[in-house]
Specification:
Structural class: mainly beta
CATH topology: OB fold (Dihydrolipoamide Acetyltransferase, E2P)
Largest sheet: 5 strands, mixed, barrel
Number of strands: 18
Distance between the termini: 28 Å
Order of helices and strands: EEEEEEEEEHEEEEEHEEEEH
Strand order of the largest sheet: 12-13-14-18-15
Shape: globular
Length: 360
């Protein structure tokens, strides 16, 4: 008898991002058509978006050719009840569901999809406007590569994937991937040097609170567990200055609760080049000893999830104090899914890298 497939019972803790910026790197010659180790067709598209001077974010789309594509359509009845119909479509028949190409199934969208601007069309009054396409990610990748260029001002929205990984050499780390679901040309000019410029690099992320620690003057860091699709990661979320004042007492209260308190956080995702610090010294027996080691300058980047708010309802914080996620069901999830897998050894890197060959 074949092994029974284990279903993931614990709910994922989803995260999203919303950026406005300038495309700073988009290799038009990149080889987006690739193969997996098993020989399956795969497409990957990578580009960078700057949201402010010195703040650069790497976007990654990846999709695989499969036997089927899944489409869904959600309807709401007069009582407000939602119903979702899912259609399983053979790979070669997927265009029948694509209304932009004459498909007949109005209202159905591919579950793994990207919406993006592509070309120009005319509205009912004859006025030209940007055309929006929504395609399976696999089909969208070459179209996006043709439509967008370095220097374009865009609005990009998508999902955040956070995952711990281990390389062949035993080095471990956390991969944070930004996966676009909507890519549109910006209707507004983006000028980082303008006096009224305001950075748009927003994130929203639900986490399980693992640790709460005072990490500086008016700074507290929450280490959160992020549950994905058969994956798990840990990420630090920083409350600083005003956010520290607003939430210090609440966060310290969480230290005394059983695992796992779950909360949704909002803030700014800062990904900027590390700046050289002026080292401070103390003299010991006539020898100057550095108190703080300066960070290296250069092209290395430091990512910070600078948290500004815990999502709240009308009257109280939307906090689950341990009913949905418990030590028992989280441990069951770890036992079932977070274990060594063959694909963890695909990378031949000998140093810590972002685990680009891993996917949720």
């Amino acid at each position: 008898m074949a092994d029974e497939v284990v279903k993931q019972e614990i709910r994922a803790t989803n995260g999203t991002f919303d950026f406005a910026g300038i495309i700073s790197n988009l290799d038009k010659e990149q080889d987006y058509d690739q193969k997996t180790k098993k020989g399956n067709a795969m497409r990957t598209l990578v580009f960078n978006v700057d949201t402010a001077e010195g703040h650069s974010h790497r976007m990654q789309l990846r999709a695989y050719q499969g036997e089927f594509v899944y489409y869904s359509k959600t309807t709401v009845d007069k009582d407000g009840n939602r119903k979702t119909d899912i259609q399983k479509v053979k790979w070669g028949d997927r265009e029948k569901f694509d209304t932009s190409k004459g498909g007949k199934f109005e209202g159905y969208l591919p579950i793994d999809r990207v919406a993006f601007h592509s070309g120009i069309e005319k509205d009912e009054s004859g006025k030209e406007k940007k055309r929006t396409l929504t395609l399976p990610t696999y089909d969208a990748i070459p179209e996006i590569l043709k439509e967008f260029n370095v220097g374009d001002a865009i609005r990009v929205v998508g999902n955040i994937q956070i995952e711990d990984y281990t390389l062949n050499n035993g080095n471990t780390g956390t991969a944070v991937r930004l996966v676009p679901t909507r890519i549109f040309h910006s209707s507004k000019e983006i000028n980082f040097k303008a006096e009224d410029f305001s950075e748009v690099a927003n994130f929203s992320q639900k986490i399980l609170v693992d640790e709460v620690e005072e990490t500086g003057t008016k700074e507290i860091t929450v280490t959160g567990i992020v549950i994905g699709n058969q994956r798990m990661g840990r990420q630090d979320f920083i409350f600083r200055d005003k956010a520290y004042d607003d939430y210090n007492q609440l966060l310290n209260t969480m230290k005394n609760f059983p695992k796992y308190v779950s909360i949704e956080l909002k803030g700014i995702l800062n990904n900027g080049a590390a700046k050289e610090e002026t080292p401070q010294f103390v003299e010991v027996k006539g020898i100057k000893v550095p108190l703080v080691q300066s960070r290296p300058a250069g092209n290395s980047f430091v990512r910070e999830f600078l948290t500004t708010a815990i999502v709240t309802g009308e009257s109280a914080e939307l906090i689950d104090w341990g009913d949905t996620y418990t030590e028992q069901n989280v441990q069951e999830f770890i036992n079932n899914f977070i274990r060594a897998k063959d694909e963890y050894g695909e990378s031949t890197a000998t140093e810590d890298t972002t685990a680009d060959d891993f996917s949720f």
